[in-house]
Design goal:
The protein is of the alpha/beta class. The protein has 6 helices and 4 strands. 21% of the residues are buried.
Length: 245
């Protein structure tokens, strides 16, 4: 691997002020709160003003299932990430941490960055041959060694705003599904209550009918007994009348 001079320094602010960048002017957003990792990362990006960078956080992404990047932000420096003709490199935060702690590792990582820059046009051509119009280089740590991968995509890389919008949309969809499920649960509960109520009503009707029939039976029995008593009295009176004659 052929590595260019690692000691060459580029003053990003002078570059921006004098507008010596041939392509689009890159902007670096400096966080007001002190963060050594971001400070080092931005300083590193300043050494390669023609490159569009992103700062990944693979470790957090594996734990949480998804992650935009370090501190849940892509921390993009530069424009047109992944677009044709724009050298684009994503660096995992673990690489930055190791670069800050180990000078040998730092030299190796910078060497890979510069090698990626020099070979980038070939990476793009290789991707285009298989229908990938968008390209980037991903640099991460592999057991304290720098590892690189060439990434290709059929579609443009999403911006941070686009990804957040997609995630928010997915959360809204989940909320809608949850609400719909709650409605269905309530409908099912209402149906169950109505079924219980119907059964209760039917039971009440059976009880009423049962007691109504009982009263009717008693009424008929009383009437029959009354008729029998009257007939018995009539017979006795008739007998008395016959005997008296």
């Amino acid at each position: 691997m052929e590595i260019g001079s690692l000691n060459k320094q580029t003053n990003t602010y002078n570059v921006l002020e004098n507008k010596k960048v041939n392509k689009s002017v890159f902007s670096i957003t400096i966080n007001n709160t002190s963060d050594p990792i971001l400070d080092y990362y931005h300083d590193l990006c300043g050494k390669y003003p023609d490159v569009s960078f992103r700062l990944d956080d693979v470790r957090t992404g594996m734990i949480n299932g998804r992650c935009l990047g370090y501190k849940d932000s892509m921390n993009q420096v530069g424009d047109n990430f992944g677009c044709a003709g724009q050298c684009s490199i994503s660096i995992d935060v673990k690489v930055i941490e190791n670069m800050m702690q180990d000078s040998s590792y730092e030299i190796s990582a910078k060497g890979w960055i510069e090698d990626s820059i020099s070979r980038y046009s070939q990476y793009e051509k290789n991707n285009q041959l298989i229908g990938m119009e968008y390209t980037s280089v991903h640099i991460e740590d592999d057991n304290s060694r720098v590892s690189t991968a060439i990434v290709g995509s059929h579609l443009p890389y999403s911006t941070e705003e686009e990804v957040k919008a997609i995630w928010n949309s997915n959360n809204e969809d989940k909320n809608q599904v949850f609400l719909y499920k709650k409605i269905l649960d309530n409908v099912d509960m209402f149906d169950s209550l109505m079924e219980i109520f119907d059964k209760s009503q039917n039971k009440q009707k059976e009880i009423v009918k049962k007691y109504y029939n009982a009263d009717e039976l008693i009424e008929k029995t009383d009437k029959r007994n009354k008729n029998a008593t009257q007939q018995k009295r009539a017979t006795v009176e008739y007998d008395k009348h016959i005997l008296m004659e």
